[in-house]
Predict the structure.
Amino acid sequence: MESTGTNTASESGAAPDVDLDLVTVPTRQGLEAVDIIRRAASQAGGVGPVLHDGSGDTLGFLVPPGTADAWDLPGSACTQTNGRGMRFGDAASPTADAADVTGWLLPPEAVGPVTDPDVLRAALGEAARLIEAADNCR
């Protein structure tokens, strides 16, 4: 199967062997954003594969290559992979005894293509506002 750079699963359901960018956010904001994107199913493509770190501090959304060039959302980071470091196909599936291992919250074979950066940006903004409102009600 020829890769377009935005597909996240091969025909076998394995993770892609392409360079993608990774947007990382605090877990609470990321989980809210996943819910927001899933509720707004009419948005471009829905949510794509999402990684979680073993410590539970952050979530990572796979986005198309080149996203990092213009990513400037406060409270988040976007990293170019350029083929360095962990390949996304190597992320472990979470297990009960592997609390410190990075794994899939939403694996590539269970969701559609990578998350659209504009959809993600909007969802993260809405998530931040919801969290702030909830925290101010306490």
Observations:
- The chain has a mean pLDDT of 79.
- The radius of gyration is 15 Å.
- The chain is about 25% helix and 15% strand.
